[in-house]
Design goal:
The chain is built from six helices and three strands. With 172 residues, the chain is of the alpha+beta class. It has a three-stranded antiparallel sheet with strand order 1-3-2.
Length: 172
């Protein structure tokens, strides 16, 4: 059993909407006991959409909660497409950051390297003949990052990009 998903739709005036959003923010900040139409007690994800129609606002909210089953959900393998999409944005972020001659945050670099390892556990998706080469490129990235050598990190990123492009040319 997965966590539950709840939807909420309501039309507000400007004042009602601002009060409602403030209440949500206060709840998240303090876990107050204020009640909402949607239970935010153990939210995993909240999607909020607000459309303006003059002085009325249509508010749609989807809340995914983390049920007790979320512990087992984490052991389930993530969708490959989700992993690849996240890796693409992580890598682009790293490239943007180092192109500004700044080191990425540890958590950004570590997340990309961890995701790269995770990606290589999907051999049925193709590209496994390039995994050794990709792993070496990631190791070079990690080493340059740990040494705080920006030029070496830039070169290692070029190597990762080159292996990535070669693989995507075949499998994408």
């Amino acid at each position: 059993p997965m966590g539950s998903e709840t939807e909420f739709n309501k039309v507000f005036t400007r004042k009602e909407l601002s009060d409602y959003l403030r209440g949500i923010a206060d709840y998240i900040a303090s876990k107050s006991s204020e009640r909402f139409e949607v239970d935010l007690a153990d939210f995993k994800e909240v999607k909020l959409s607000i459309k303006s129609y003059d002085d009325q606002f249509e508010c749609k909210m989807k809340v995914k909660s983390q049920s007790r089953a979320s512990i087992t959900d984490k052991t389930k393998k993530e969708k490959y497409a989700s992993l690849k999409k996240r890796m693409k944005s992580e890598f682009e972020m790293i490239i943007d950051i180092i192109n500004n001659n700044v080191f990425p945050l540890d958590k950004v670099m570590n997340k990309f390297l961890t995701d790269s390892e995770k990606m290589m556990t999907y051999p049925d998706k193709g590209g496994k003949e390039r995994f050794d080469e990709y792993r070496q490129a990631c190791d070079a990235m990690k080493s340059a990052f740990e040494k705080r050598d920006l030029n070496e990190l830039k070169e290692a990123c070029k190597l990762v990009q080159s292996v990535r492009k070669a693989c995507h040319k075949i499998y994408k």
